[in-house]
Amino acid sequence: MTSTLIRGRPRHATSHIAVRVAHAVLGGVAGFVWLLLPGMTISAEDPVPVAHAGPVVVAGAAERDETSVTDLLLPLVAVGAAGVLAAYGYVRRSRRSRTRTTPGVVSVRPPVPTGGDLERQARTALVVADDSVRTSREELSFAEARFGAAAVAPFVRALRAAETELAAAFAIRRRYEQGVPEDEVARRQALVGVVGRCAEAGRRLDAETPAFDRLRALEEGVGEALEVAEGRFRELTARTGGAAVTLGGLGGRFAASTVEPVTGYLEQAKDRLVFATGHLNACRQTADAGDLERAARHLRAAEGAIAQADVLVTGVERLAAGVREAAELVPAALTGAEAAIAAARGAGPAGVPAGELRARIARAGGALAAVRRQVTGGSYDPLDALRHIARAVEPLGGGRTGVVSAAALLVARGAVGAADDFVGTHRGAVGAEARTRLAEAARLLAGRGPGLALADQLAREARDLAERDVRAHGTPYAGETTTGLSGAVLGGILLAEDPDAGPPASFGGPETRGRFRV
Question: What SS3 class is residue 106?
Answer without folding.
Answer: coil
